[in-house]
Amino acid sequence: MATRPLLTHPALTCALIVAIFYLVPVEPGVGGARLVVRGAASAVVLLLVAWLVGAQIRRQIADPRPAGGAAGLAVALVGGLVIFALADYIIAISGPDQFASLRTKTDALYFALATLATVGYGDVHPTGQLARAVVMVQMAFNLVVLATGASIFIDLITDRIRQKSK
């Protein structure tokens, strides 16, 4: 049995994506050369997250069994959550009137997860037009992720039922 590279392990990949989210330097009032460096660093981080998600997708293509799909879906979900959380956080610190009660990266990750889970506690919510537009895109992403997750789950159950009936 061949071993796979450590970075293609889904749990490690998810943990690394969340760690990268917290390491991205984002703060209000930065200008000049610092802003350019920060923008370049953020682009590198987004590319790294995209690469990690892409590695999981390539792994899924190589092994398309339903159980493998769940792992790939988890990485895509965490990658999407982090990207939306970062976008929400940047919008919140750039325009304090865009979100109610979104002040930290943890608030942003909490809001992104609450939106994905369709919980909607109401403590953090978009108030500005830009924030609402981004959250609408986030909701559409979430619908796709939830539908894909349900499809993978149904395929997994169907596959197991077929195997037992043989």
In short, what is this structure?
By secondary structure, the chain is an all-alpha fold.
Sheet of most strands: 2 strands, antiparallel
Instruction: Please work out how many helical segments DSSP would assign.
Output: 5
Please list the strands of the largest sheet in the order they lie side by side. 1-2
Structural class: mainly alpha
> How much beta, percentage-wise?
under 5%
Query: Radius of gyration in whole Å, from Cα?
Result: 18 Å
CATH topology: Helix Hairpins
Supply the number of structural domains.
1
The coarse silhouette is globular
Q: Which CATH architecture would you pick?
A: Orthogonal Bundle
Task: Give the overall average pLDDT.
Answer: 80
Which blocks of ≥5 consecutive residues have pLDDT under 50? none
Helix content: over 70%
- What is the ordering of alpha helices and beta strands? HHHEHEH
Tag the structure with descriptive keywords:
single chain, 166 residues, Helix Hairpins, two-stranded antiparallel ribbon, 5 helices, globular
Please give a structural write-up.
With 166 residues, the chain is mostly helical. The protein has a single domain (6-165), classed as Helix Hairpins, CATH 1.10.287.70. It has helices at residues 10-23, 32-62, 66-94, 105-116, 129-165; strands at residues 99-100, 125-126. It has a two-stranded antiparallel ribbon. Helix 1 runs antiparallel to helix 2 (32-62) and helix 3 (66-94) packs across helix 4 (105-116). The longest helix is centred in the C-terminal third of the chain and has 37 residues, at 129-165. The radius of gyration is 18 Å and the shape is globular. The chain starts with 9 loop residues before the first helix and ends with a helix. The model has no long low-confidence stretch (mean pLDDT 80).
